[in-house]
TrEMBL record:
UniProt pathway annotation: Phospholipid metabolism; phosphatidylglycerol biosynthesis; phosphatidylglycerol from CDP-diacylglycerol: step 1/2
Protein name per Swiss-Prot or TrEMBL: CDP-diacylglycerol--glycerol-3-phosphate 3-phosphatidyltransferase
Source species taxonomy: Eukaryota, Metazoa, Chordata, Craniata, Vertebrata
Family from the record: Belongs to the CDP-alcohol phosphatidyltransferase class-II family.
InterPro entries hit by this protein: PGS1 (IPR016270), PLipase_D/transphosphatidylase (IPR001736)
CC annotations in GO: mitochondrion
Single GO MF annotation: ATP binding
Boundaries of every PLD phosphodiesterase domain copy: 168-194
E.C. no: 2.7.8.5
Protein's organism: Lophotis ruficrista
Keywords: ATP-binding, Lipid biosynthesis, Lipid metabolism, Mitochondrion, Nucleotide-binding, Phospholipid biosynthesis, Phospholipid metabolism, Repeat, Signal, Transferase
Reactions performed catalytically: a CDP-1,2-diacyl-sn-glycerol + sn-glycerol 3-phosphate = a 1,2-diacyl-sn-glycero-3-phospho-(1'-sn-glycero-3'-phosphate) + CMP + H(+)
UniProt subcellular location: Mitochondrion
Record's function text: Functions in the biosynthesis of the anionic phospholipids phosphatidylglycerol and cardiolipin.
């Protein structure tokens, strides 16, 4: 039975019950995950092109270096751009690079495309929009700023919900930063905290033109159905495009679905064609066809040892690829396999919880302690959010204990003085292996929002290269070293006290944060 067949129940309108046994006919090692290529494009690359970063400062410096050396394109998708000095320095780097490209050729080939969320990017008087308007004014032909507005925030709801609270309805949450043919995938936003003391994850894919093309096209597709920021700080839709909150909702979502799926399917077709050509070329050996291909390409590329699969989740548009793949990975995980899963906001969907509690693999789940939660110390109602996460964690831990699964499913809390925690993703270790062969990295948090409300993207990186596996293993170890194991005594600590009103309200609002 192939892994692809496991996805069949998820494609039906009814809620799936995933009970299929693990794939038994797949080849051993990394290639057992090639079924993901039935849904999305598969990009085979050399592991030498993958670099795992470990710190916010390293991420920030890399962003600046990449902007300064970009020649053809800068594409950045984020929730928002902050308004501090570090963020201004990034904008200054963009301005300097655009200016140089104009001076070098008279008419610049460099294009800058920035995709942000409309509600988060418009918050406050000084915001992401005011930070970027000078670039639009100075380089109108080269800079595009798109602001995605969820189609679910409309009508009376849009008029009544105040700023900040309107962000709970749905967001553009994808984080991709690409410069020419180099791509940075992360969960980090473009804000000073993410450049200094907010721990996240970051992977650089170097010299990967096909992957860079894919994410450029994806950001363009979302940009086309988003509001376009103008030089006078107004916004307007592209000509002929249905408006996200004034136009017909179903028509808008259908257009958005079509645009995004065109990107996914056309890239998948291109990659399959490349794979077919490479396969036939290798089968022919020293035939004339192989010789011609070698001459045309200036020599054959080395065989890939690492595969990148982009996983997109946009439930408002009816796109659920990341959810399908994640559920299948959790379903297939065999006995004695280990899954290290991390999220800055522990609020798993019921489907993910059921799979974790009902399957055979060992789980090590890393989540934020209250003090490193991004909402810790926030004013107003938001200040109670860490307590709500504690309550959700306590309920899940109680269920683990009731099922006597404490050894198989272990919770660990990240704690680091002066830092907050925002890392998300997973690492999969096959049974008997000390190194991971697969990781998921990107924007999803494995919660209700990620699955149902927001626009999300991550990649599955599958590798059979030991050096890259060791990089990923070190990344996992470094994060988990700053954690303590959750036990019953954890919830007896004074800082874990959850007020009654928080307990009562949490079930009602947990799908919004």
């Amino acid at each position: 039975r192939s892994s692809w067949l496991l996805l069949a129940p998820l494609l039906t309108p009814t809620v799936p019950v995933v009970t299929a046994p693990p794939c038994s006919l797949c080849p051993e090692g990394a290639h057992r995950f090639q079924w993901i290529g039935n849904l999305v494009p598969e990009f085979g690359i050399s592991s030498s092109h993958v670099k795992v970063l470990s710190s916010p400062a390293e991420f920030y410096e890399l962003l600046k270096v990449q902007i300064k050396t970009a020649k053809q394109r800068v594409v950045m998708a984020s929730l928002y751009l902050g308004t501090g000095l570090l963020e201004q320095e990034l904008v200054d780097c963009l301005e300097e690079t655009l200016e140089k490209s104009l001076q070098a050729k008279g008419s610049s080939n460099l294009r800058v495309s920035i995709l942000l969320d409309y509600t988060r990017g418009s918050r406050g008087r000084k915001n992401s929009r005011t930070m970027l308007i000078p670039l639009l004014q100075q380089f109108p032909e080269q800079v595009r700023v798109s602001l995605f507005h969820t189609p679910n925030l409309r009508g009376l709801l849009r008029l009544l919900i105040p700023e900040r609270f309107n962000e709970t309805i749905g967001l553009q949450h994808i984080k991709v930063y690409l410069f020419d043919d180099n791509v940075i995938l992360s969960g980090a936003n473009l804000s000073d905290l993410y450049f200094t003391n907010r721990q996240d994850r970051y992977v650089l894919l170097q010299d990967s033109p096909e992957i860079a093309d894919f994410f450029t096209e994806l950001v363009d597709a979302i940009g086309d159905v988003s509001l376009q920021l103008q030089r006078d700080d107004t916004v307007q839709m592209m000509e002929g495009m249905v408006h996200p909150y004034q136009g017909d909702k179903m028509a808008y979502c259908e257009i958005a679905n079509r645009r995004v799926m065109e990107v996914i399917n056309s890239a998948r077709t291109r990659q399959e064609l490349l794979h077919t050509k490479a396969f036939h070329s290798s089968q022919q050996g020293s035939s004339v066809l192989s010789q011609q291909g070698s001459r045309a390409s200036g020599g054959l590329k080395p065989e890939p040892d690492t595969w990148i699969y982009p996983l997109i989740q946009m439930k408002p548009f009816g796109i659920q690829i990341d959810e399908m793949v994640t559920e299948t990975l959790l379903t297939e995980a065999e006995r004695d396999a280990r899954i290290y899963l991390t999220t800055g906001y522990f609020n798993l969907t019921q489907a993910y919880m059921d799979l974790i509690l009902g399957t055979r693999a060992e789980y090590r789940i890393l989540l934020a302690s209250p003090e490193v939660n991004g909402f810790f110390g926030a004013k107003g109602v938001a200040g109670a959010i860490p307590a709500a996460y504690v309550y959700i964690e306590q309920q899940f831990y109680s269920e683990v204990c009731c099922l006597q699964q404490q050894e198989r499913v272990r919770l660990q809390e990240y704690s680091r003085a002066g830092w907050t925690f925002h890392a998300k993703g997973l690492w999969l270790y096959l049974a008997g292996s000390d190194l991971p062969c697969l990781t998921l990295i990107g924007s999803p948090n494995f919660g209700y929002r990620s699955v149902h409300r927001d626009l999300e993207a991550q990649v599955a990186i599958v590798t059979e290269n030991k050096a890259l596996q060791q990089q990923l293993h070190r990344e996992q170890e470094q994060l988990y070293l700053c954690s303590g194991v959750v036990s019953p005594s954890t919830f007896e600590q004074p800082n874990r006290y959850v007020k009654l009103w928080v307990k009562l309200v949490t079930p009602l609002i947990k799908n919004f944060f």
